[in-house]
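Anyone up for a design puzzle?
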């Protein structure tokens, strides 16, 4: 589960600095709410997760992640993943999306170097999709783990 929190950072979120107070406060709020992380937003428009990039899967099977701008830190995993997913024939759209779009998504997940591909099953207490890891998220995980050279036969949940 995740929660949503207002993104109170400056307008140049794309600059990685040692000032991570907003992300730390977002994590603290998430933990207090019994969640793992937070989806940060500005007036309902998603910027990113506390330390990851956010993705949704639409009813049409399109994977959507935020377009690159000064509104977010680009994310090495995000960029690599977008390229890999296009290479395997999936439709990837880079654009801003809202908290309501996450709530209405078929699936949602985050991408980061630390947690790699982490499914979002609920936000603010509301189930995303069916509240279970979906087939597109599993395909995304398998695609990225194969790229990393993981032995997929050892991962029984894929």
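Challenge accepted. My sequence:
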């Amino acid at each position: 589960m995740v929660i949503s929190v207002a993104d109170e950072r400056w307008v140049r979120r794309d600059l990685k600095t040692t000032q991570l107070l907003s992300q730390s406060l977002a994590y603290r709020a998430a933990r207090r709410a019994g969640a793992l992380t937070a989806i940060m937003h500005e007036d309902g428009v998603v910027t990113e997760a506390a330390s990851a990039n956010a993705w949704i899967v639409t009813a049409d099977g399109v994977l959507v992640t935020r377009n690159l701008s000064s509104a977010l830190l680009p994310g090495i995993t995000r960029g690599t993943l977008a390229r890999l997913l296009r290479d395997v024939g999936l439709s990837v759209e880079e654009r801003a999306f809202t908290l309501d779009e996450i709530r209405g998504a078929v699936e949602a997940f985050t991408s980061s170097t630390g947690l790699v591909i982490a499914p979002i099953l609920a936000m603010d207490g509301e189930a995303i999709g069916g509240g279970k890891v979906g087939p597109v998220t599993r395909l995304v995980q398998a695609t990225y783990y194969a790229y990393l050279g993981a032995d997929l036969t050892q991962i029984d949940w894929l």
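A detail worth pointing out: The chain has a mean pLDDT of 90.
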